[in-house]
Amino acid sequence: MFDKEWMQRAFELAQKAEAHDEVPVGAIIVHEDKIIGEGWNQPISSNDPTAHAEIMALRDAGNNIGNYRLSNATMYVSLEPCAMCAGAIVHARIAKLVYATDDPKTGACGSVFNLLQTEELNHKVEIEKGIFEEECRTLLQDFFKAKRVKQ
């Protein structure tokens, strides 16, 4: 499968988060051309500030393969990860991150700073961005516009 098809799945999970009135972010983890983990934002519904899409996908993948190390795996996520998620990605030893759209306020993979490739850490993650960018950015923008109208 190609990156666009994997990102399509992350986008579908972002839509699932939106349907549950969560910020629409979805993530999957792929290893050897197979999805081993999926997640979508759930911090509001679970009362868990760590229940971001990336963390949920990491937990799912770890449970599915029986290992917290996800070496040689690729994560696809609809929004650039925050510092918490970027740290977890490094600790899981994800090889590559592919994300759709930048997060200019809290992005920790190049927008605000870059935890995934800093010299101070013992693991570096390859980064690719921009796949399915317009769709994911529009989904997020529309979600927040709707929230502002409701207030």
Offer a concise description of the structure.
This protein is of the alpha/beta class and about 150 residues long. Helix content is about 40%, strand content about 20%. It is globular and about 45 Å long.
Describe this structure as you would to a colleague.
With 151 residues, the chain is an alpha/beta fold. It is 41% helix and 19% strand. The chain is built from five helices and five strands. It has helices spanning 3-19, 43-46, 53-65, 83-92, 133-150, and strands at residues 26-31, 34-40, 74-79, 96-101, 126-129. The chain has a five-stranded mixed β-sheet. Helix 1 (3-19) runs parallel beside helix 5. The mean pLDDT is 96.
Backbone structural class: alpha/beta
- Rg, alpha carbons: 14 Å
Q: Give the count of helical stretches.
A: 5
Give the helices and strands as they follow along the chain. HEEHHEHEEH
How are the strands ordered across the major sheet? Answer: 2-1-3-4-5
> Which regions are unreliable across 5 or more consecutive residues at pLDDT < 50?
none
**Average pLDDT score:** 96
Largest sheet: 5 strands, mixed
- Distance between the amino and carboxyl termini: 42 Å
Overall form: globular
Strand percentage lies at 15-25%
